[in-house]
Design brief:
This protein is an alpha/beta fold and about 300 residues long. It has a single domain, classed as Alpha/Beta hydrolase fold, catalytic domain (Rossmann fold, 3-Layer(aba) Sandwich), CATH 3.40.50. It has 13 helices and 9 strands. The protein has a 9-stranded mixed β-sheet with strand order 1-2-3-5-4-6-7-8-9, sandwiched between helices.
Amino acid sequence: MTNTINKPFNATPAYLEHHIDRGQGSIYVRDYEGSEPAFVLMHGFPDNLHIYDDLIPHLVAGGRRVVAFDFLGFGYSDKQTGARYSYEQQLSDLHAVVEHLGLDKIVPVAHDASGPAGINYAIDYPEHVASVCLLNCAYGVAPTKKTPEIIGLFAHTDLKSYTQALLQSPEQFEWALKFQMSKFLEHMKDDSQIQYLANFLGPIIETNFTKHPTSTPAFVQMTSQLFEEVTRNTKRLPEMEALDIPFKLIWGDHDPYLNTGVAEDFHARLKNSSLHVLPAGHWLQIDIPEQVAAIMLSNE
């Protein structure tokens, strides 16, 4: 199903909506007109496509086609009872978007936990990838990478009885989410960025976990597979290193978890990459969207 949404000038540009059937529900997609290769924007664990709301107008103003979508189980995409979520499913979601929209070559833009989808898509479908853009994301092992506390809690499956009990108490789970956000915010330097991020991102994450049906099953299933996925991706590092596709690494340097050391490790491993470290936190596309867009649109 496809329809057009028009928004006021200076708000989000006009886009087409798509709902792509994945067998256990449909993916929600927004497609903004422009020249190709299209930027295909992907989100991480606790959020959804809205993390790109401030970035997209700059990319569209630069004349480029932009596609943003919610992985199954998150945001506006379906969250069917009994649905199974995995990193392989997210990679397939990306492939389904490319096929449904008839895109030839794309620029996967990966943030946070969508790093595996973006990088593995480049490995598996290099003929469809013009370049790759990585924003404070993870893939395999990296010497300085740290796991956020709430992610580590749910990733340790031997703590399942504890995390299941936590989920039975909305107040305690909300406290855990707010604690994690505070850990990201305390490493940021710019007070205006801190305030804006808290006001912008807080409702996005809250809606993901409080509006029914919620993203909680997808979050729980994805985090429980994290360590196995890191192991699988570490084995694929030689395939990543062999890619001759250009990579842009755009990194907020105030991220205590997926820190600049992670970006430097990517840069050292990749055959064809540029590294851009910016004064921002983990969600740099929210903190400094104009600067991020300028690098994405550049010919470097």
